[in-house]
Amino acid sequence: MTITYGSVPLDEALALSGMEFLSAIRDGRLPHPPIAETAGLRLVTVEPGFIVWEGEPTPAYFNPLGGIHGGWIATLLDSCMGCAGHTTLAAGIPYTTVDLKVNYVRAVTPKVGVVRAEGKVLHAGRKLLSTEGRLVDANGKLYAHGVSACITLDAQAEKLQ
To answer: What pTM was computed for the model?
Structure first.
């Protein structure tokens, strides 16, 4: 499947539940977000409370010492954890990340190959979503892990600003 990239108008995105919206991205009915193109990410799994993004570490993401930049790893983890929380939300409820904690276990290099950022919901409350994420290689070897908190927003108040 060819991946397309672009922004979905907020009203269109909020007309769908989180599961519907993210499934449409995974299936190619909606475009992957622009950050996915920048970071070389692909949404591969969408289940209630669980998401997997894949990415391949390339020299485009090198830090000054030739390793993969921690910001790229954090981007994968933020994406999987936030989207895992999004799967639990009904239509009309936007959210944003308010806290992100990443632990780097070992260096990621291009030799690692494709990595999977697996996000899982720990708690989905009315206002706060708590999630965890793991970055692993094809053999399940752990490279980084993290936790995140997201807060749901009032869609009407956000449109007025």
So the answer is: 0.93
